[in-house]
Amino acid sequence: MKKILMIATGGTIASEMTPDGLAPELNPQQLLGFIPRIAELCRVECLQLYSLDSTNIQPKHWLGIAAAIRENYDAYDGFVISHGTDTMAYTAAALSYLVQGSPKPIVLTGAQKPIWFDSTDSKRNLTDAFIYACRGCGGVQIVFNGRVIQGTRARKTYSKSFQAFSSVNYPDLAVLQDEHLLQYIRSECSEAPVFYDKLNTNVGLLKLIPGTQKELVEFMARRYDGLIIESFGVGGLPEYEHGGFYDAIRGAVEQGKIVVMTTQVPNEGSDLTVYHVGGHLKSTLKLLEAYDMTTEAAVAKLMWILGQTCDFNEVERLFYAPVAKDILYSVE
Q1: Rounded Cα gap, residues 227 and 9, in angstroms
Q2: Averaged over 315-329, what is the pLDDT?
Q3: Most buried residue, 57, 151, 212, 226, by most Cβ within 10 Å?
Q4: HSE-up (13 A, CA, CB side) for residue 322
Q5: d(CA 137, CA 108)
Q6: Does 331 score more than 60 pLDDT?
Q7: Residue 115 has what DSSP assignment?
Q8: Alpha helices in 78-207 (DSSP H)
């Protein structure tokens, strides 16, 4: 029988009602008490790492989860992380960079309704997560509503429905139905994982809206070591009459800041070469393009890279080197 470590971080799945609304209160042993079936699937040991609404999760917590996995890696066959849904995609992406090539499954799950609700998705999601931790492939995945999603490809696309997550620009890895696992794609794993313990969290994300002022771009470019800009469509910078966007980005690049262009559009990715507003930018400035990556993955990957180097050429090499299927577009 497989031995699985459950790492609890809080979230809706563990929430109780308080005068101000739902808040994480239940520990992992209490969660498992609602699902005796899991004890028949595997031996479970529990670690209460945090008790947080996932809105309050920060990069320091990603490092804490990765450190807990590293400290316990040799003693277990797999890991189940219970987590709030709101930032779960960011955590899954971050763990994909902090724990690379794991031959053991590292599974994140949670719920849209607390486990004590009559109509809850908690029991199915938690049971499926343990099934996948016992029978599935290595690497970091989200298991939710019967779907297994690559950690670098997940995005929360529904705020209330049980089908909370979608896999962006990449197929689901597997599905689970009535405790049957159908594995479509097997993750690429190493003989042993490679762990990282450093992030540069001085990374900002700017979502453009029509009429965004250049002063905001200038401020964020000064403030952050790395700036990700979510532009419109396939990507580009506005060329307003008195915009000054190009000069703001050029100044940032000349100061050694790392700028990544991506798109607000969920599917199909960016391509700066299509229009002048993107092509001029890409052909004249040393910046990066996220292509088919999710914003969540781009943010986490840039934090991971800048935790190692600020040299543009090395940042560029690492950014375009695929990790856990985070980018399919080849720049060669």
Answers
A1: 28
A2: 94
A3: 151
A4: 14
A5: 14
A6: no
A7: T
A8: 88-98, 122-135
Return left, alpha or beta for 140; rule: phi > 0 is left, psi -120 to 50 is alpha, else beta: beta
Query: What is the DSSP-derived secondary structure letter of residue 325?
Result: T
Position 90: which residue type? Answer: Y
Question: Taking the CA of residue 15 as centre, how many other CA atoms within 13 Å lie in the half-sphere pointing to its CB?
Answer: 24
Given the residues 9, 12, 212, 294, select the one marked as catalytic.
12
In this prediction, residues 89-116 reach a mean pLDDT of: 96
| Cα(328)–Cα(104) distance, integer angstroms | 23
Question: Is-contact 110 144, C-beta < 8 A?
Answer: yes
pLDDT tens for each residue of 193-227: 999 999 999 999 999 999 999 899 999 999 999 99
Give the Å distances, CA to CA, from 44 to 36, 78, 122. 11, 10, 17
Do 328 and 169 touch, CB atoms closer than 8 A?
A: yes
The number of CA neighbours under 13 Å toward the Cβ of 246 is 16
Length, in residues, of the chain = 332
Is position 284 annotated as part of the catalytic site? no
